[in-house]
Fold this protein.
Amino acid sequence: MPRQTLGRTAAAGTMVALFALAASPSAAREIGPEADLCGEINRLTPGEELVLRPGDYQGPCTIRRGGEPGAPLVIRAAEPARPPRIVYDGRMTNVLEVRASHVVIRGLEFGPTQNSVDAVRIFAANGVVVEDSRFTGLGGIAVVANHSSLHGLTVRRNVIRDSKATAMYFGCHNGLTCVVTGLVVEGNHIRGVTAPDPEIGYGIEVKLNSSAVIRGNLISDTKGPGIMVFGARDLVSSSLVERNVVVGSRTSSGIVVGGGPAVIRNNVSALNGEAGIGLEDYHRRGLLRAIAVVANTVYKNAAGGITAPESGLRDVAVINNAAHAPAGRPSVPARQPGLQLAGNVDCTWVPCFANPDGMDFSPFPGSPLVGLGVLQGKPWFPKDDFFGTRRGPLPTVGAIERPSGPIPLGIKP
């Protein structure tokens, strides 16, 4: 009995020690603006953090040493409310170039930069995270990965303002040179994208054969599409675009789908130069198949609500969307082979929303949206709405299930 008690005590002590080891924070090194930023970054080892005090740090830097799965290399702000700014006024390279895997960039500030100078350019690196950072007045792209195939890139809760180029760009144009998978673009706020002709000026762009979850982003005042996914040649690489707000593309649709597989659901797209959601057979690739456009709200878009080519669709579903369109423009596409239409409500002539010009797209009591949605047993059918509210057994048409108030458009500090 004493030996058994001793064994239990030793085991308990071992468990406490292991818990303490697992719970201990990563080793951190804190520096100020006078330090050699790039040298300090490239001296880090897996699991270490470099903590930057407020101030301006001299760039550029190429990050050549990374972390490991579960032990990333972290570069972060000491005070999130006073982000350290990485400054680079040259033209020969980019502010940060990431050439190592498992790197986290958190709470930093970038910009302004010269034309074509990007803030964070990611090369052959997996498991990279760019989050809670600010990008202002960039002459290039805020976050870009279009050199080598990579997996597990996360870009979330960043603020991009007054960009002179596409804000975010992932994958290679030809879909062959590189493919980005496991991409999550979530909770970002992009406001103001211009670009010199013939550049398009996207908010978020995911190229051919790359795939992403694009969720909860707020995108306004872009030159080109707020969001565009180009689709994939296979039927495995699917993108999900949900709970985004896209307002005020000057020359294009708010959300553009160049191909599937893709699910576009619970988005609000308003006041764009073309459609709210546009399906486009980009370069006649014939990839408009395996696409679900379901439970979206589109309002006052110049060329129509949800638009598509007159032919060439395969296994495309447009279901339970609330669509306002200018007089003479389509609220949803006309029926054609390969297109399923069900449960959509045309809000052009009938009031549907509580206060759409005040960004409140909630259904009001007695709205024609309430309870008129059709049910589908498909895996892409939404169980909740834009705000995360559970959908009822007779779902409301559009992105918002019940009165929820206006969508805030301001940038949070």
